[in-house]
Amino acid sequence: MEHRVQIYKADFRGRVESEVFRRYATFNFDEYQEPSRGPLGGLLALNDETLGAGNTIFRHLDAHTSVLVLPLVGGLIFRDSFGHEDTIGTEQIGIFSGGQGNAYQLTNPYKNDLVNYLQIWFKTDKTKTGFSQRSFELDVRNNLVPIFGDKPMLQPNSLGFIGLYDGRQEGTYTLKNRKNGLFVFVINGAFEFDNRLIETRDGLSIVGAQTVEFEALSANAMLLLIEVPLCA
């Protein structure tokens, strides 16, 4: 398979903003549609969102989808159309899976503070519905920490990792399935990934590689790494 790399610069993401909500979409989402920003296999969307104090957003699903919610600053109250309600905090993820017509909402519970989080959408099959939650720890630096991949609600073979790195620390990642694609999102700082510079809120996709190497170029650099099937 040909080795292909694409960079998704933060400044060129799709932006939607109101007085209480802001979204930056790395991939095509709602009214943001660009020929070069289609999904990466089963990875449909990666949205960097900020929600104002005390506000709520609502989403309806148009197809069978798994939605992963990853708070970066603050926490959220999650509710879905199945009647589930829970709080998702930092160093936690929530995963909601549903089909066409199912809905969920996210609420900022704080009186004065903004909440920043990622919403990541995966294509999934019709048998997966419901909500699950898990915690992870970033107390061990310079390692990729698994945050999803063993949960049945996510598309089979999708794997996710997060890592917090000191400056000039190096790492490698070997794909579990060479037919999969790899997507990297820089939450904070700067990395050299596959000999390419990516900085805060940039993304990078790699197709056709077996092992990739990277290096953190700044202190407290944080990345999200997703391995996803290309044949969704």
From TrEMBL:
Pfam families membership: Pirin_C_2 (PF17954)
Domain of life, source organism: Bacteria
Signal peptide: none
Domain (Quercetin 2,3-dioxygenase C-terminal cupin): residue spans on this chain: 166-228
UniProt name for this protein: Quercetin 2,3-dioxygenase C-terminal cupin domain-containing protein
